[in-house]
Amino acid sequence: MKTTHIVSLEELNTLTVDVSESILDELLLEFAYTHFEQHKMPLNHTHKIFSSYLPLSQQYFFCAFASKNNEEVIAPYVLSSFYLNQIQCNTTDVFILDNFFALYQNGKLLYFKLLKELVLKHEITNFIQKSLQLKLDNIYEISESDFKHYQTLFLQEESKLEKFDSIAHQKRTHLKRFVFYNTLIFFCLCGYFFFYDFINTQNMAPQSSFTPLKQKKSLTLPLTKLFQNINTYGLKLINVEVNNKTITLKLSHSHKMTLIEFMKLYASTIENISYNTKENQYELTATLKFT
C-alpha cells in the first residue's frame, strides 16, 4: 500500500511574482523556473512546483520542493480535508496556525506563508486584504491537535479529495506540443528556403564569361536564428507568410512588452497589435525584412 508523504514547510521554497496578466499554460513552467533562478533558488527535473494565480492582485504564487516519490503533498494542502463533507464551497477562508497560515478559495489552496515569528491575527488578515486584495469570509484558528486531525483525515479520505498535482507534471504535455509545433514550422520553412535557394542558383546564368556570378544570400541562417529567438522569448507562432526577402509573422504572448522587445531585434514593421480577450493574450502581426 502506497503511503503519501507530507512535505513539511521547511522543505518548501515559495515565490510570489507580480504580473500584468495571466500566463499561457504552456509557458507557465518555464516562467516559474526562470523566476526561481533569478531569486537564486535554481530548480532541476526532480522538483515539483505548485502554482496559483491571484487575479485581483495580479500575482502568481509558486511553491517548489525536491520530489522524493510520486505520492507527495505539501503540508498546507492537507487542510483541504476541512471541506470533505461540503457539497458546495464558494468562500474565501484563512487557516491560521502557529507556524504558517493557508488561504483557501472555493475549497482550493490558493496561497500560504510560513510564519517565522509571532504574527497577530489582524496582521495576517490585513496582509490578505491589502496585499492579495481578497475579502475573507471565514477565519479559522487551527491548533496543533486540529492540524493533526485534518492530516489524519486527509490520509484516510485522500481518494475522495482533489488530487494534488504540480505544473511540472500538468504542463509537460502542453510544453512538448508547443515546442513540436514551432519546430515543425521551422523545419518546413528551412526546407522551403533551401529548395528556393537551390532552384534560383541552378537557374542563374552568367552575364558573360568574364563576369562572375554574384552569390545569392541564403535566408536559411537568418531563419534559423529567427526561430531560436521565437522560442527564447516564449512566443507562439500563429501564422507565417514568406515573400522573397520578407516574412510576415503573426505571434502571440501574454505580455505585450515581450512582443515589442522581440521585434526590436529585427528591421521590421509592426502592422497590428491587439488583445485577444478569448485567448487572454496579445497578438502581433509584423513584416520582417532580411537583406
N-to-C SSE series? EEHEEEEEEHEHHHHEEHEE
Q: How big is the Rg?
A: 26 Å
Cα end-to-end separation: 66 Å
Mean pLDDT: 80
As for the number of domains, it is 2
Question: What would you say about this model in short?
Answer:
This protein has seven helices and 13 strands. It has helices spanning 25-38, 121-130, 144-156, 167-170, 172-203, 220-232, 256-263; strands at residues 5-7, 13-18, 47-54, 59-66, 72-74, 92-96, 100-105, 108-114, 138-141, 236-243, 246-253, 268-276, 281-289.
Walk me through what this model shows.
The model is unreliable at 171-179 and 204-217 (pLDDT under 50). This protein has 291 residues and is an alpha+beta fold. The strands form four sheets. It has a four-stranded mixed β-sheet with strand order 8-7-6-9, covered by helices on one side. The chain has a four-stranded antiparallel β-sheet with strand order 10-11-13-12. It starts with a strand and ends with a strand. It has two domains: 5-166, no CATH class; 172-201 and 217-289, Alpha-Beta Plaits (2-Layer Sandwich). 32% of the residues lie in helices and 29% in strands.
